[in-house]
Each structure stands twice: as C-alpha cells, then as structure tokens.
Amino acid sequence: MSTNDYVKFMTQQIVSYMDQPKELRRETKQRKKTERAPFTSQWFGVLPVAFSLMFKKKNR
Predict the structure, then answer these.
(1) What is the dihedral of CA 28, 30, 34, 36, to 10 degrees?
(2) Which tens digits make up the pLDDT trace of 1-35?
(3) Per residue in 2-38, is it b (16+ CB within 10 Å) or e — as a string?
(4) pLDDT band at residue 37 using 50, 70 and 90 as cut-offs
(5) Largest Cα span, the chain
(6) Three-state SS sequence of the chain
(7) ∠ at Cα 6 (29, 24), nearest 5°?
(8) pTM for this one?
C-alpha cells in the first residue's frame, strides 16, 4: 500500500467514525469490551489456558 492510499484509507475511516451518532459509538465500544477475550488469553496466549485446563483435570 502506498502512502497516498494509506492516508486516503485513514481519512475515510475517521470521517465514517465521526459521522456516526455518539450513542452508536458508545454501543459499539461497549459491545467490543464485552466480546473481548479473557485477560490471561489476551496477554499471554493459549498456553496459560491449556495449563489451567490440565491442572483442573488432574484435580478431579
């Protein structure tokens, strides 16, 4: 992507964001927060989740 294309894309994104009503922006922000992955998998990947599942199986 050339620099001109990138600037054009970014301006389109900014303008489309600014054209949305404020309430719609808040709703989308809130929806993204609720759909986000858990903290451990978001920051450290799948390995901590795999280890926790492995230890839970051993404890049973």
Answers:
(1) 60
(2) 789 999 999 999 999 999 999 999 999 999 988 88
(3) eeeeeeeeeeeeeeeeeeeeeeeeeeeeeeeeeeeee
(4) confident
(5) 59
(6) CCHHHHHHHHHHHHHHHHHCCHHHHHHHHHHHHHCCCCHHHHHHCCHHHHHHHHHHHHHC
(7) 20
(8) 0.49
